[in-house]
Every structure is written in C-alpha cells, then in structure tokens.
Amino acid sequence: MRPQAPGEIGTAQWIRVALELHRVAPRLAIQVGRYVHARQYKRMNGLLRKLRTLVGRVWRDVERHAQCLSDQKQVEVLKERCLARRLLDQKKNDRNKLYSVHAPEVECISKGKARQRYEFGG
User: Fold this and answer.
1) N vs C: which end of the chain shows fewer Cβ within 10 Å?
2) Structural domains of the chain, count
3) Are residue 36 and residue 77 in the same domain, yes or no?
C-alpha cells in the first residue's frame, strides 16, 4: 500500500466501502425494479433500506475525509454531499424531490394522460 499524499482522499477502508457501493448498488437497483414489477413491495423496501445504508456509509466516510482536501476540492465535494444528503432525507410526499443526481434541476411534470402520466424535465 502506497503512502497517502496530503490532500488526497481515501484510505484503504474508505476505498473498500466505496468499491462495495460501486459493485453492489447497481445489482440492488435492478433487483428493486424486479420486485416492483412483481408487486413484492416489502422485499423492495428492504433493498431500498440497504441501498440507503450503503449511501449513508459512503457519505459519512467522505465527510470524514473531506477535511484533508484543498479548498477547491472541498467545495466540489460539498456540492455532491448536499445532493447525497437531500437524496437520503427525502420522503414520499416531499415537494422538492431529487429525481436525478446528474441533473438536480429535473422535476416531475404531470401530463394527465392515460398512457404516459408523468414526464421528467425542467
């Protein structure tokens, strides 16, 4: 293991948690879709809780390691952390939901049609 340079984010444990999320999260998201399609909502909610737990672990690790970053990188990490916190805290009936991490300005638009009820855009 190489020595960690100052201002660099990541210890072996933090990288391990991030890699676990990177490996496990897409598989869990696909499984959530399958459970929704089969109307197995209790199993789906269990997987969503597991996903939120993993995202929360990475969020806390980034929060711990962000202090050793340069000021410019801290601002970039702060934006991402705000989005992650917003994603973790949102509930079903919240007004200001986050539908896309890559485009946070996206909103849900109700179309009122039978075939395509909602549209996501901004």
Assistant:
1) N
2) 2
3) yes
